[in-house]
Specification:
Layout (H helix, E strand, L loop, with lengths): L36 H14 L5 H20 L2 H13 L6 H7 L6 H6 L1 H30 L7 H8 L3 H7 L1 H29 L8 H8 L3 H7 L1 H39 L6 H7 L8 H19 L6
Length: 313
């Protein structure tokens, strides 16, 4: 740690008398000693306070040395440095020594290495070992990904390793390129298979809806629309027409059944009420209650106008 200027030094702050050499009329609180962090903080504030009153050109170097010395006393004590380095060494994934130095306020790690060579060497070795282990995991993960079908994306492998895709491409460029090529090939094969399934669905009777087809294939509708938009539109239209025709067929069958039941009841002089007709309808005929009620009412009016009145009961 750099010691502040003493009394025999060139103009600047004197750590022994607490005054500025070569200057007068400037009051600075007395120092409490080099090891007094509170005093060191006050001295830094005093130096900053008197800057407008002095000529910086004549004492620039002295100011810089004193400020650096007191900042080092305040911010970084040997005990704090040792504790920080020890915690880093005990962690499973310590930061690089340069990053630890920057966190402690140093421009580089040289000062830490000179003060705590053993701790710094151990941390550096652990960082190197962790880096090599990580690269081995990267290689293993990429090799496993190449064996899978479908192969995962490079981004998915990177996320599982907690790094970015460009990191994999930088350190394992060949394996990364193989995975990218394999994924593109499998994606193209999958696309062709989905298009073929969509075209086959156009010949099915009844035609499935787009949603039903997507559930069957395990994809979403946007993917299928992107792969084969014309086939999806044609399938949607076929399904719409099928549903419309089925609805018409069911309604016609319902009208015929209601008329037959109502006529039979009227022939036996029984009023064809809605409950009597509904309970006699075949299963599956009542899919739309509103439409069923309307058909029954129209049938009742038609029979009443042609046969007079019915016996109620």
């Amino acid at each position: 740690m750099q010691v502040p200027l003493a009394a025999f030094s060139t103009p600047g702050y004197c750590s022994l008398c607490g005054s500025w050499l070569g200057k007068s009329g400037i009051d600075i609180p007395e120092s409490g000693g080099k090891d007094d962090l509170t005093s060191a903080s006050k001295q830094i504030a005093s130096i900053i306070e008197i800057l407008p009153k002095i000529d910086p050109a004549t004492v620039a170097m002295s100011l810089r040395r004193n400020i650096n010395a007191y900042c080092e006393q305040v911010t970084v004590s040997p005990a704090l440095i040792k504790e920080t380095l020890t915690r880093a060494l005990e962690s499973s994934a310590p930061k690089a020594l340069e990053q630890i130095a920057r966190d402690l306020g140093y421009a580089g790690s040289g000062s830490l290495r000179s003060k705590f060579p053993d701790l710094c060497a151990a941390i550096s070795k652990k960082v190197v070992d962790n880096t090599q282990l990580h690269y081995a995991k990267v290689s293993h993960a990429l090799e496993d990904a190449l064996k899978k079908n479908p192969a995962p994306t490079l981004a998915a492998v990177a996320r599982s390793l907690g790094c970015a895709s460009n990191t994999l491409q930088t350190h394992e460029s060949e394996l990364s390129s193989q995975l990218l090529a394999l994924h593109r090939t499998q994606l193209e094969e999958r696309k062709k298979a989905l298009v073929k399934e969509a075209e086959a669905a156009l010949t099915e009777v009844p035609p499935p809806s787009v949603r039903q087809l997507c559930i069957r294939l395990g994809v979403n509708a946007m993917t299928m629309l992107g792969y084969c938009p014309s086939a999806m539109k044609q399938l949607a239209e076929q399904h719409r027409l099928y549903i419309a025709n089925e609805t018409t067929r069911r309604q016609e069958a319902l009208v015929s059944s209601v008329l037959g039941i109502a006529t039979d009841l009227a022939g036996r002089n029984i009023y064809p009420s809605l409950p009597r007709i509904v309970e006699r309808l075949p299963d599956g005929h009542v899919s739309d209650w509103r439409f069923t009620r309307r058909v029954v009412l129209e049938t009742q009016r038609m029979l009443a106008s042609s046969a007079g009145s019915f016996q109620s009961g």
